[in-house]
Design brief:
Elements lengths: L1 H18 L2 H37 L11 H17 L6 H11 L8 H14 L7 H18 L4 H20 L2 H11 L6 H22 L18 H29 L5 H18 L8 H8 L3 H5 L11 H24 L7 H20 L9 H17 L2 H11 L6 H18 L7 H5 L8 H8 L6 E2 L11 H7 L8 E5 L5 E6 H4 L25 E2 L5 H11 L3 E6 L2 E7 H16 L1
Parallel strand pairs: 4-5
Antiparallel strand pairs: 1-6, 2-3, 5-6
Length: about 600
């Protein structure tokens, strides 16, 4: 059977190379990737909605005490799947894609095609306070990566197809093709050229068509703008931008704070139990934290904050607008906590939609405070709800253009384009100057594995240290005599540098040919002078597995050396020469900019 399969594939390859140009084939693949990513997004949504509907019909869902049970049930199912079927540690969806682009040539394990389709609906359907966008993007990326491998697509084009998959998934979920393209450019640091623009456009279109085909005209936000932007509200939108910036910084810091809080809990069972109980308590106090939160956003947009808040322990005071404001502000605060707790406890999901929920609540709070301050001001609460979402997306994701165009598209027009620009840009500027990296990128940046729009940085990130390590150096030992070194190493070497190691291969230092040149012909010293006499430290060391290529390049610049030793756990591995490093850099730069 495998032989027959290989024969069929070879025939397809031959036919393709003969009849379809590379450019046309990429366009065809981008359409296919967009359709498949869109289908994955639709499947994720439908599975999740099915689980939620089944729970509503099968149990008395209005009883708040059940909120204690459901998250633990969902997280337990995810834990069992990961332990006995997946058998690998779960990684953040978008971060894992970024890592595969920078360090794995866009190769993603085929298991990721179906894993997110199983664990994300279990997490969200049972009350986990996370989103489905990240899992949808991860599933689409895995499909595109393996499709590219199947058709022998090179790593650069495979990376483009992964970006196409993300555009298709986002376009399908939000029915916003322009924002989907911009997301791929901003988050995946893709160069927006005509070569990449057309595949992204095709994937985005095919993704949204998939959504229309399976979901019809059903939209996430059934809202039409009735109040346009007024110049007198400009200052309030500036204030909202500052507020969403503060909330974005809080969101990011809270995420890493809670993740670190769970690290001492080594056993997944303890994390599941602690996290599940914590989520249950939060859902009991603030029911809108359940699941993704689109119903909550829609209720705020139509002005029904009572329905948005649902049944809470504070229903007796709900007629007081300041209690409503306090509860909505509580959602702003605790959405980040509930989301991170879900992920830290072992759940699977994304951060994009929780960001929108938090932003909608904050925007509505700001509008309500303005309208009820007694100062005679009046603003549109629905508009502030929308623009609050844009402010949080711009700040948390460091993606202001995505935020602007997403909100503009899902509202069906550009009537709020100016206030969107004001709030999103202010939020982004303040957050970016306070928090260098996003939740997606911080760990990758710290390890030197992050691709950016900076070409020099991107090229160095794509380079591998293994490709530039040279090992054709003759090793010497400290107890060797000068004569032994000259006979066994210098006479047989084509290099002018000699690493000194002990019996355990621990790196002790180096000897340059210049260090022994004046003693080479003094035969009296051959038997009496040891190698350790000439040994000295290298100008610097390259630490294998620790130093990024950016760090390696910086060490050459700071030390002025032409060769630096590579060590791992104190043991000698080889040398990197500046000339080979620069040659490899030029080669990668040419490949990157083709």
């Amino acid at each position: 059977m495998p032989i027959q399969k290989n024969k069929i594939l070879r025939r397809i390859y031959k036919w393709r190379y003969k009849h379809i140009s590379q450019k046309t084939f990429i366009y065809i693949l981008s359409v296919a990737v967009g359709l498949l990513a869109g289908l994955a997004a639709v499947t994720l949504k439908n599975i999740t909605y099915f689980i939620e509907a089944s729970l509503e019909k099968g149990i008395i869902f209005s009883s708040n005490q059940l909120y204690f049970i459901l998250p633990i049930v969902g997280l337990t199912l995810v834990y069992l799947y990961v332990k006995y079927i997946h058998k690998e540690k779960l990684k953040h969806a978008v971060s894992s894609i970024l890592f595969s682009l920078s360090k794995n040539k866009g190769n993603i394990d085929v298991k990721q095609v179906y894993t997110q389709l199983i664990i994300a609906p279990l997490t969200v359907g049972f009350g986990g306070s996370v989103g489905l966008l990240g899992p949808a993007v991860a599933t689409g990326a895995a499909i595109s990566s393996n499709l590219g491998r199947l058709f022998h697509i090179n790593s650069k084009t495979r990376s483009l197809l992964i970006a196409c998959a993300s555009a298709g998934a986002i376009s399908s979920i939000f029915q916003s093709p322009i924002a989907a393209i911009i997301f791929a450019v901003e988050v995946f640091s893709l160069d927006l050229t005509m070569i990449s623009m057309l595949p992204l456009l095709l994937a985005s279109i095919s993704g949204v068509l998939t959504s229309y085909f399976f979901m019809g005209n059903e939209v996430l936000f059934n809202f039409t703008i009735t109040e346009s932007f007024e110049i007198k509200d400009t200052l309030f939108y500036v204030l909202l931008g500052v507020g969403t910036a503060v909330a974005s910084i809080y969101f990011t810091k809270m995420y890493f704070g809670i993740i670190n809080l769970f690290k001492p809990l080594k056993s997944p069972k303890y994390r599941l139990l602690v996290g599940g109980l914590a989520i249950g308590i939060m859902l009991y106090m603030i029911p809108p934290l359940y699941g993704e939160g689109f119903v909550f956003i829609n209720n705020l947009l139509i002005g029904d904050h009572i329905q948005a808040l649902g049944k809470t322990p504070f229903d007796a005071y709900i007629n007081n607008i300041w209690v409503v404001i306090a509860l909505l502000f509580g959602i702003t605060i605790f959405k980040a906590v509930a989301m991170t707790t879900t992920l830290a406890a072992g759940g699977a999901g994304g951060i994009f939609i929780p960001t929108m929920v938090m932003g909608s609540a904050l925007g509505n709070v700001v509008a309500k405070i303005i309208n009820n301050s007694g100062l005679g001001f009046s603003v549109s609460e629905s508009n502030f709800t929308l623009i609050g979402m844009a402010g949080l997306i711009a700040g948390v994701q460091h993606a202001p253009l995505t935020a602007i165009f997403l909100i503009a598209e899902i509202t069906g027009g550009y009537a709020l384009f100016v206030p969107l620009m004001i709030t999103a840009s202010i939020s982004y500027i303040i957050t970016k100057n306070t928090v260098d990296y996003t939740i997606y990128t911080r760990e990758l940046a710290e390890s030197g594995d992050l691709l950016t729009h900076n070409k020099d940085h991107a090229v160095l990130t794509l380079m591998e240290l293994d490709t530039v390590i040279e090992t054709n150096f003759k090793i010497v030992h400290p107890e060797m005599t000068l004569g032994e070194m000259l006979h066994d190493s210098v006479a047989k070497s084509t290099r002018n540098i000699f690493p000194v190691v002990d019996v355990d291969h621990k790196f002790l230092g180096i000897i340059l040919l210049d260090d022994i040149r004046e003693f080479m012909f003094d035969t009296k010293l051959y038997a009496t002078t040891k190698v350790e006499t000439f040994t000295h430290m290298a100008p610097d060391h390259i630490y294998y597995g620790e130093d990024s290529m950016q760090t390696v390049m910086q060490k050459f610049q700071d030390s002025g050396a032409w060769n630096l030793p590579v060590v791992k756990d104190g043991k000698y591995m080889g040398f990197v020469s500046k000339s080979k490093l620069l040659t490899a850099y030029r080669r990668e730069l040419i490949r990157f900019t083709k």
